Amino acid sequence: MRLFPFRWFYMQILYLLIPMSVVLIVAAVLAFSWAVKHRQFDDLESPGMIPLLDDTDEERRRERQDK
After folding, report:
1. pTM of the prediction?
2. Contact at 8 Å (CB) between 7 and 1?
3. What is the phi/psi pair of residue 40, to 5°?
4. d(C-alpha 36, C-alpha 44), whole Å
5. What angle do CA 24, 30, 34 make, to 5 degrees?
6. In the predicted model, is pLDDT for residue 24 greater than 70?
7. Are 35 and 41 in contact, with CB atoms under 8 Å apart?
8. What is the pLDDT of residues 39-64, one digit of tens each?
9. pLDDT value at 1 more than 60
10. Which backbone phi and psi does 56 adopt, to 5 degrees?
11. Checking phi first, is residue 39 left (phi over 0); if not, alpha (psi -120 to 50) or beta?
12. What is the CA radius of gyration of the chain?
């Protein structure tokens, strides 16, 4: 009795998995280069700080007058 009766299957599956992994890597590199080209990584600090900033008193007065 052989330990791996379907030894040919293991080699055949590599013919499928290697091209699939290459395609996945190429897609990831293209997505990253698109994000860099479209300036998605320019300012990582201020979008997280905007909700934390308080309105000034003048802005609060304007909001009250508009209502």
Report:
1. 0.57
2. no
3. -75, -20
4. 13
5. 145
6. yes
7. yes
8. 888 877 777 777 777 666 677 777 77
9. no
10. -80, 165
11. left
12. 28
Question: Amino acid letter at 55?
Answer: D
How far is 38 from 54, CA to CA, in rounded Å? 30
Contact 4, 10 (CB under 8 A): yes
Q: Dump the DSSP string for 12-64.
A: HHHHHHHHHHHHHHHHHHHHHHHHHHTTTTS-SSHHHHGGGSPPPHHHHHHHH
**Which tokens is 44 given?**
């990582």
Distance CA 51, CA 64 (A): 20
**Residues 25-57 as b or e (16 or more Cβ within 10 Å = b):** eeeeeeeeeeeeeeeeeeeeeeeeeeeeeeeee
